[in-house]
């Protein structure tokens, strides 16, 4: 007996209709992204749609479609913009005099610069959840992980981890999972609770990195 046909969800296009070049169009596209960030925080992903976005921006749905074909395209643009800011942070870290830094100082600096980027993105938790759960945005989630792991593996080498690249990437993945999830928690905590959570994060990072810094070189 033949297997029944399977139905696969068709992915929506996440490409903008056209790249805005005029100043007015650039401002309007950014306004759409800003309003969507606010709505993502207040109404959530499931109830978010282009009609609500257009109403809050003060334009018709037809006008909105001149910029983005659907809500996933807007979320994709938001996610890509956030990834660009993460990439800039990683480039900044590579410019540090890592070979001369003490481990405690490095951890203080790396946590501070990354947390600022998470706090600057409104509704970052809901955006990251969308990047993970929405098929059209999954590429961004994967790109984020690959980028952080590859760059931090290089950072750890310069800090003095005498490990094979695959082992440094394993440690970098652990670093990613611990820091990423913690930052998403901290941005929604009050100041006192956030400070305590960050202290614990720094303690965990210190423990892991100190252990590997003190181990002999491995193949």
Question: Can you describe this structure?
Answer:
Pfam families: TetR_C_15, TetR_N. Keywords: DNA-binding, Transcription, Transcription regulation. GO terms for molecular function: DNA-binding transcription factor activity; transcription cis-regulatory region binding. This is TetR family transcriptional regulator. The structure is a single chain. The chain is an all-alpha fold and 219 residues long. It has a domain of 136 residues: Tetracycline Repressor, domain 2 (Orthogonal Bundle), CATH 1.10.357.10. The mean pLDDT is 91.
Task: Give a quick precis of the structure.
The chain is mostly helical and 219 residues long. It contains 9 helices and no strands.
